[in-house]
Amino acid sequence: MIASIVPGGWQWLIILVVVLLLFGRRIPELARSLGSGITEFKKGLKTGADDDKSKLPPSDDTPPKAP
Fold it and tell me: pTM score, two decimals?
C-alpha cells in the first residue's frame, strides 16, 4: 500500500523540474544564507568554547616546579 504512494523515477524528475521552475531564482540565495548561518554557528561554538576555557580555574594537573 505504501509503495503505491512513493513517487517513482519519472515522477521525481517531474517534481524536480516543477520545484526548479517555482524556486529557481531563490535556490542560490537560500544556499548562501544557509552557508553563512553555518559559518556563524561554528564561530559561536568556537567563541563559546574559548570563553568557557577562560572561566575555568587553573587546574592542578601542572607538574610542580623543580627547586
Answer: 0.49
